[in-house]
Fold:
Amino acid sequence: MTAICAVEHAGGAVLACDSFVGDESYRDLTDSPKWTRRGGIIIACAGNVRASHIAEHARFRRQRANESDFDYLTSAVAESIRDAHDDRDVSDENFQAVILFRSKVYCMLDEYAVLRSLHGYAAIGAGADVLLGSLASTDGQKPRARAEIALNAAARHSNHVSAPFHFTEVKR
Structure:
């Protein structure tokens, strides 16, 4: 279980995650953030831990000259992650990702569907509902503060979210 959120702003985007790993019978804290940088892309994963590790190391082609960012993410990145899961016979059940690309926040949900919210933020994981509510209610505040407030709210109200929190930012 986990909590990951990202917020777009005029100067770029902020991504934040908690450190909880576990389920109903096991609890621990990871010693590293739940994202990876691959060239100009940051991928943060929630759900199936093995599927997350495979997604973080999936190989995908470069963006083509006339290809939109959205087309690239759906046809190259999402398909490469799906293929990597299939190649290793790993279930994608309960797998989600937040992707930062060119200072925009995208969500990869069930069946590798990619979307970008009109609201300029996204959240996945066990704390997603609390994160989204918090992000909605803190509109107008500084992006990192919004993410931190959201993670603290999720940690307060979910048994599957815990500090320490990790933050990264991309600038335009």
About this structure: DSSP finds four helices and eleven strands in the chain.
